[in-house]
Design a protein that fits this description.
Largest sheet: 5 strands, antiparallel
Structural class: alpha+beta
Number of strands: 10
Oligomer: single chain
Distance between the termini: 132 Å
Order of helices and strands: HHHHEEEEHEEEHEEEH
Amino acid sequence: MTPLFAQAARTDLAGEAASLWNQIGAFVTERGFDLATNILAAIVIFIVGRWVAKLLRALSVRLMARANVDDTLLKFLANIIYGLLLTFVVVAAVDRLGVNTTSLAAVIAAAGLAIGLALQSSLANFAAGVMLILFKPFKAGDFVDAGGSKGVIEEIRIFSTIMRTGDNIQIIVPNGQITGGTITNFTAKDTRRIDLVVGCGYGDDLRAVKGFLSELLAADDRILKDPEPAVAVTELGDSSVNFVVRPWVKRDDYWAVRCDLVEKVKLGFDEKGYSIPFPTQDIHLHGMTA
């Protein structure tokens, strides 16, 4: 590059810089006050709007707490309310700066639709979690059969429910799977009925067997007197006469009493000589003469 050409280039660059600076100066002179005012107004809108959003979130938390809304749902809804209000505040502040917020709102709406379509299952689980928390078909500590799993409820979350099985295995079940099926709550009631079927042989004294079973129930203090336990012949089976034995117990005594009754029935039958028949078949042979 020749010195003359370099000098011309520097002169042009200096001229462009001076022109740009003059344009900036003219812009500041003509619209600088309005721009500063808009920036200040946007800052004020954001600060005041955020304060109002926090105030409304605190108010909503109080109202939901008075309505006995579950803590998990309360916090989640409060955060959603705050997020929506803060989004509105940001849009209002940007609009004050002169930015066209119509297209911005359209972009936000389109993004929300896309996210909603992508998270359909998660949103369904969220809605199911809200239903579980509001209507409370079970609570923490209940033993339930729900969503294809059995276990003790440990925690009900927004998107899933945590269960613990009898052998101390943790199961995480999506809430949508729980509300979409049948829920069996084994601990919802204070009492439960034990249903046993006891069979004796056709050669045994039916009245004596029934009396023994009734005495067995009366001797156990854990069995409730009201409702009265039932012992009745229910079926003349293929190989045995079947009794139904149906005592009522407290919920927490169910398995202990059931196991004890099964053991005492077997020991008592052995002691008294009653038979517990195995399934049998009679085979008849017919001979033919030559």
